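Example 306.
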Amino acid sequence: MKLLVVGSVAFDAIETPFGKTDKILGGAATYISLTSSILNVESGIVSVVGGDFPQKDLDMLTDRGINIEGLEIVKDGKTFFWSGKYHNDLNSRDTLVTEVNVLENFEPKIPESMQDAEILLLGNLHPGVQLSVLEKMEARPKLVILDTMNFWMDTAWDLLVKIIGKTDVITINDEEARQLTGEYSLVKAAKKIHKMGPQFVIIKKGEHGALLFGDDKIFAIPALPLEEVFDPTGAGDTFAGGFAAYLAKKENFSFETMKSALIVGSAMASFAVEKFGTDRLQEVTQSEMTTRIQDFKELTAFEVEV
Ligand code: AMP
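Predicted structure in complex with adenosine monophosphate:
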């Protein structure tokens, strides 16, 4: 199955307790499609960059088999820029700068070659753009996955609620789920989100793992305990990318398959945080991926007699 990815393609400047970067490659769609390529799943990006976006980064994406026909280049425009600074515990961060630039007036176009994508992953971007992409698909994809953030709850509530209503799976972090529903209990929050539309609700809890709610069942996974976390940027996008790509590979959207997809998403996110930006994702090998998923299995497998 093919995966169509909508989301930012960006420059990020990141500061963590371990160091600082100038403008480096970032963006939700970048993390998602790089993760799909590691899983050998065909993906295509719908997004926009400016004339300042380096050819070498475009080449890197195409070399990995990512379809960038839907990545518009506005020659006289500037690429979306985000800058953030992490606190010492790496669990929270402050956004220092968001320059929307070419994303401000972005009108997404879906290339003919991606119209038959069975899975649509609406990565972090203005909910109006996410809606417009869904409307421009000639046939509704078999599965629509939405990733969002608190920024859109504060600035585009109505459109956000509308796109949530058209979504099959939502991935959202714990604080955002609370903000969206006004419920502190994540179980109650997930129930309210189900009522808004999505049949499956995934609540991400950073270094504490993730929860999957659906079919009246709950599944929980931890995050892989890592000795060193270098830069958490993109962990959520990588998680969503791994999750979606695994479902595309298995061509199955059952709760059971989603449980495995959650593990794959978490394993992929554990790579993303090991280096700045997308550096680690660009070098992950198939065998490293298999080993990490195995580590995950061992971490979570146990037998108990009562
Ligand atoms: P995450 O750490 O998973 O929240 O994702 C970080 C990525 O999201 C960075 O690479 C940023 O470029 C991108 N990003 C940050 N803010 C926004 C925004 N308002 N719209 C779209 N992408 C964003």
